[in-house]
Amino acid sequence: MSDLLRKPFGTRGKVHEITPASAGWRYVGFSLFRLRAGDSAAEANGDREAILVMVEGRAEVSGGGVNFGTVGERMDVFEKSPPHSVYVPAGAAWEAVAETDCALAVCAAPASPGTDRPARRIGPEGIETIQRGKGANTRHINNIAMEDNPVAERLLVTEVFTPQGHWSSYPSHRHDEDDYPRITYLEETYYHRLNPSDGFGVQRVYTDDGMLDETMAVSDGDVVLVPRGHHPCGAPYGFEMYYLNVMAGPLRKWRFVPAPEVRWIMERDA
After folding, report:
1. What is the mean pLDDT of residues 25-49?
2. What is the tally of structural domains in the chain?
3. How remote is the C-alpha of 221 from its chain's centroid?
4. Which of 113, 226, 239, 246 is the most buried (most CB within 10 A)?
5. How many Å separate Cα 185 from the centre of its chain?
6. Within 10 Å of residue 115's Cβ, how many Cβ atoms?
């Protein structure tokens, strides 16, 4: 199995834990908790900021000295409604107590304690589900915390719904150089879900020189690491694909370069 493909290591509690050390990079951390009603999860951020995304279910969430009450509304991620999320700054801690069965994602990146970014809710107000792409490249996006939202120091977080038979993160593109404004260096994780859940999707991660070229079949609940290179996804006919993206790097801006073989598609569809 590819080192870039991470399977959940359990069915209850923390089922994913990706750190910079385990991923072999510098910035992005990602964890996923599967909680049953009454279960709790809690962590101290240390020198990392976090965005808690309630993928499914409801929980009482507190963080950074603030009790946010019930967070979450959608019971099934494929309802496609904008998610409820919470930002917790570096140097603070958070806790979640599940009110229903839920899936809670913890997106993390290095940040400076003591900044003027307080703990706060993110959405669902102000998050509009937008359509991107054309034809079989059409997908639907909930931008949770992209660069137009200054909530975080480094984190960029978004979720994408790809209809059956469609492609996503396509035309293929990369963001693996620190050369702003042409391109920015951003590590990235993809947390995948499939509908029906016994289906599969496909994700390829490849570089222009072919030194990295891996194509993975992803199952419901898998995580794919994108350390560099292009990273398109495909959803076979009969299966919807969802993914939650976490990106972070030295600069909180998303600038990318298309793969040479698909540049004409991007220029045509612009």
Report:
1. 97
2. 1
3. 12
4. 246
5. 16
6. 12
User: 209-246 pLDDT, tens per residue?
Assistant: 999 999 999 999 999 999 999 999 999 999 999 999 99
CA separation for the pair 242, 261 (Å, rounded): 26
Cα gap 41→235, rounded to integer Å: 32
Which of 6, 107, 96 shows the shortest CA–CA distance to 57? 96
Provide the residue type at 60 as one letter: E
Cα atoms in the Cβ-side hemisphere of radius 13 Å centred on 242: 20
Of 148, 259, 152, 264, give the one whose Cα is nearest residue 213.
259
pLDDT for position 238: 97
Q: For 65-114, how does the pLDDT look when each residue is reduced to its tens digit (9 = 90+)?
A: 999 999 999 999 999 999 999 999 999 999 999 999 999 999 999 998 76
Rg over alpha carbons for the chain, rounded to the nearest Å, is 18
Are the beta carbons of 156 and 218 closer than 8 angstroms?
A: no
CATH of the domain at 136: 2.60.120.10
Pair 171, 265: CB distance under 8 Å: yes
Record the tokens describing residue 207, joined without a space: 């570089």
Domain that holds residue 20: 5-269
Candidates 206, 195, 182, 180; CA nearest to 259 is 206
Residue pair 215/229 in contact by the 8 Å Cβ criterion: no
> What's the start-to-end Cα distance of the chain, in Å?
37
3-state SS class at 112:
coil
Which whole-number Å values give the CA distances from 24 to 20, 28, 130, 150, 230, in the listed order?
Answer: 6, 10, 33, 27, 18
Q: Which residue has the tokens 């509690």?
A: 13
Cα(35)–Cα(13) distance, integer angstroms = 6
How far apart CA 54 and CA 125 sit, in angstroms, is 14
Backbone φ and ψ for 137, nearest 5 degrees, come out as -105, 10
